[in-house]
Amino acid sequence: MEKHLHMGIKAVIEEFPEIESILTDYDIGCGPCMVGTCLLKDIVSIHSLPKLDEKKLMERIAGVVLNGNDPGKAKPANITKKPVTYSEPMQKLVAEHTLIKRWLALIPQVVEYVDLKTESGKQIINNGIDMIRSYADKFHHAKEEDILFKYFDENAEIIQVMYKDHTNARALVQNMIKALKSENRVLLSESLLAYRDLLQHHIQKEDEILYPWMDRELNKTTLIEMDAKFVEADINSGIKEKKYEDMINDLEKLLP
Ligand SMILES: [Fe+2]
Ligand SMILES: [Fe+2]
Fold it and tell me: How far is the CA of 233 from the centre of ligand 1 (A)?
């Protein structure tokens, strides 16, 4: 069992496919990880289940690994999720996600109703792309990449997955710009909807798994230091949140 705790999750699931559905029972979805090298023991600790649930999960995994059968199969998990509380700097990032999610929620209507042939239509797309590049990327992702992630081992898979998401998001923005220039409605729709899907999953991973885990790992002094760095980064970015709040408020009123 000890050997398997120190194996990457992909290799464990390849050897024991049943383990994937056991993890899913506990709301642990390893699908978003593209490499699958997170160690089984780290996956269990990162998700910080209530002690009793963690014990049951480990018993089920051990049952499969050691005896070839899942002792909890007949009685699926009924996990009791603890409400998440965030430290102050993490609360700021979660609040920024909230504004980004309001823009993501509008994308299907934008794709359906905005006419790229009109100046007002182009303006809406331009504003949306500006929000993604300035607010979501320069203001928000920059704090994660330049400050938050630096307090951790950046080669850890959980952080590498986040970097990869940011990189993929930037590539989609390039497609949006190309599509806007050439008035290519299909490419614009595809890239906006793909961005929406990517960022929604990314934000969920951060809110539910990454930030709570990071909060548990960081001590009070570090969190205070990090908060001060966030404030400084916000000032240096020259970006005003209000501008984007206003833009989203207007768009929510405008779109059907
Ligand atoms: Fe992120
Ligand atoms: Fe984020």
Answer: 16
- Supply the DSSP symbol for 10: H
Centroid of chain to Cα 89: 17
Pairwise CA distance, residues 133 & 245, whole Å: 15
Count other Cβ atoms within 10 Å, centred on residue 52: 10
Q: 76 CA to middle of ligand 1, Å?
A: 32
Measured CA to CA, the distance from residue 59 to residue 55 in angstroms comes to: 6
Ligand 1 center from residue 119 Cα (angstroms): 32
Where do the domains of the chain lie, and which CATH numbers do they carry? 2-67 (1.10.3910.10), 88-254 (1.20.120.520)
- pLDDT tens-digit map of 216-234: 999 999 999 999 999 999 9
**232-237: Cβ within 8 A, 24+ apart:** 233/142, 233/143, 233/146, 233/147, 234/139, 234/143, 237/138, 237/139, 237/142
Contacts 24+ apart (CB under 8 A), 119-126: 122/180, 124/251, 125/176, 125/180, 125/188, 126/180
Nearest CA to 161 out of 195, 97, 206 is that of: 206
Q: Across the chain, what does the average pLDDT equal?
A: 89
- What whole-number distance in Å separates Cα of residue 135 and Cα of residue 239? 7
For the chain, report the end-to-end CA distance as a whole number of angstroms.
56
pTM of this structure: 0.84
